[in-house]
Amino acid sequence: MSADSSPRVKRIGVFGGAFDPPHNAHVALALAALDQFELDLLYVIPTGPAWYKARALSAPVHRLAMTRLAFEEMPRVVVDDRELKRAAPTFTFDTLRTLQAEDPQAQLYLFIGADQFAAFRQWHRWQAISELAIICIADRAQYTLTQTQCDAFPGHNNRFAALKLPLMPVSATQIRKLLASDEVSAAGIAQLVPASVARYISLHHLYRSY
Ligand code: ATP
After folding, report:
1. Is 188 left (phi over 0), alpha (psi -120 to 50) or beta?
2. Whose CA is nearest to atom 30 of ligand 1?
3. pTM over 0.90
4. Residues near ligand 1 with C-beta < 6 Å?
């Protein structure tokens, strides 16, 4: 069989995050991932209690609801709650291994921001992760992907790819701070999160200091 007539390998993307709350850069990243890597499916996976986050995260029920709102009606995106259902902190490695077992023929792509990539060597079983999935990295303000960084993974550096995304200076930390400062109404974050997420935050009075 010629290369051209080979069946196309299914491409499954994985995009994890605290999503506390999900914001416009998360949505833009997902859209860019679907487009540039011609994904058949993108799993968006809110993380359970994360071992690497110093602060306590908002309740899983709220993060899941907001994530569903942020990505609703986005074709080929599935918001997956498997990590939230696990009692103990979970590792990306475990999730990727499970997804690979569910669809052994598929090629997995893991999407992360360059801030996460900067600490990639601290991830549990990072070598195994880069064997299970191609790691696709989006630049983020103050963090940009360099060839030097990829070269720092001898034997694995062909497992990294750049996700082209314009720099978007938004973070969940910034949104939580704005809301906690009490100077900003839910309308004040309207440029930073999808409208449905802003409404949910307002309705449930999330991130307020009072
Ligand atoms: P926090 O400020 O609470 O740390 P965050 O804004 O980084 O949150 P997360 O839910 O932790 O949001 O991020 C999930 C993933 O999205 C991570 O891989 C992160 O690097 C990426 N990401 C978040 N914001 C951006 C952004 N503005 N540009 C590119 N990638 C981003």
Report:
1. alpha
2. 113
3. yes
4. 17-20, 25-26, 29, 112-113, 115-116, 138, 140, 168, 170-173
pLDDT tens profile 33-67: 999 999 999 999 999 876 655 678 999 999 999 99
Q: Which residue has the tokens 């709650």?
A: 81
Q: Which ligand 1 atom is nearest residue 171's CA?
A: 6
CATH number of the domain at 25, please. 3.40.50.620
Instruction: Look up the domain containing 19 and give its range.
Output: 9-167
Instruction: Check if the beta carbon of residue 114 is closer than 8 Å to that of residue 140.
Output: yes
Residue 107 identity: Q
Tell me, in angstroms, the distance from the centre of ligand 1 to residue 21's CA. 10
Q: Mind listing the pLDDT tens digit for each residue in 100-118?
A: 999 999 999 999 999 999 8
In a domain, 48, yes or no: yes
**Which residue, judged by its Cα, is nearest atom 19 of ligand 1?**
113
